[in-house]
Amino acid sequence: MIASDTLSRWQSAFPFWISYLLIPLIWATSAAGGWWVLLVPLSTWWAFAVLDRLTGLNLENANPDTPDEVLDWYIWLTKAWAPVQFLTLYGLIWYTTRATGLTLFEKIGVFFGMGVISGTIGINYSHELMHQKGKLERWLGDVLLSMVLYSHFRSEHLLVHHRYVGTPRDPVTARYNEGFHRFYPRVLRQSLKSAFHAEKDKLARKDRPWTDPANPFWRYWALQGAMLLLAFLIGGWAGLGLFAVQAGTAIWQLELVNYVEHYGLTRKYLGDGKYEHVRPRHSWNASQKASNWLLINLQRHSDHHYKPSRRFPLLQHHSQDAAPQLPHGYPVMTVAAMIPPLWRRIMNPKVRAWRRQYYPEITNWHPYNKAQNPGPRT
């Protein structure tokens, strides 16, 4: 077990700061133009897949009782990203809309890469921030989500996904045999709807209408509107279009990861609208070292659902006995998810093995496959 005094050293946190190298990289590639603009997505998908093979697995666990006071290097990592991403995004809008040497294709390529950054890093860091108690961290999480026009993710994730994961009420739990290209439009539609209704129901329990100022959707819409207006003021209609390319790419990146994290994993229905408690077995776990540096241990997703408020350096690795393991890290698995026949060939046998290991008593999986079990009681 990694001791608290070891975690407090900057050297322990240093590998997780690797994401900041993507900022000078995207500026360099936007200045170079040409096919160089594709270097950012290639570095996050392919370079980290190679690094995972070279660095192997990290099976060590930190002391989960480590206090925040010794985690400053990790906490500032996520706090600092919001202003860095903001300046990079709007700086690129200013630069590309005035760069006569860049073709339209190259400009779109730059903002596709920016979307990979704001989705892979920005939304991931907002996910870490939204789970914390401090108002500043939650506010920074909101700012990051507004930059990709996906602010409702906070409500959906905290009020719906964590509560109902692995049940028919959770849109984000990818169903067995459901390809990503069917999952994606479904989750876009259902997540927005479920997030809004979750906040509406929360207010209704206090006898307040959805129009009450306490509804965070007012904040979401205001922040998103401000981000769109700023993009227009800096870059005109072209800037607004490039901003939209970035946001759409980021959302696609997020939902690819969501698809991978829970594919085919369902909680056992106990009858009378009740489901078993969430356990590490209800999320896919991955301990590839390099991609966990980039993704601040997001791949230790089994422990995140087991202990949602646990900060990322303290997330625990769970062995095969406690949680199902992905064969590769997210860089490889998200690419595989885009090719449904390949995905099913890799993952369907693993889902069936998971069912035999944890739920040998269930003989009829059809209701689970089609999300036809009764919804959990609210």
TrEMBL record:
Domain spans labelled Fatty acid desaturase: 110-334
Biological processes, Gene Ontology terms: lipid metabolic process
Classification via CDD domains: Alkane-hydroxylase
Cellular component annotations (GO), alphabetically ordered: plasma membrane
Its membrane topology: Multi-pass membrane protein
UniProt keyword annotations, A-Z: Cell inner membrane, Cell membrane, Iron, Membrane, Metal-binding, Monooxygenase, Oxidoreductase, Transmembrane, Transmembrane helix
UniProt superkingdom: Bacteria
Gene Ontology MF, one: monooxygenase activity
Transmembrane segments: 12-38, 73-96, 108-126, 220-245
Compartmental location: Cell inner membrane
InterPro entries: AlkB/XylM, FA_desaturase_dom
Similarity-based family: Belongs to the fatty acid desaturase type 1 family. AlkB subfamily.
Protein name: Alkane 1-monooxygenase
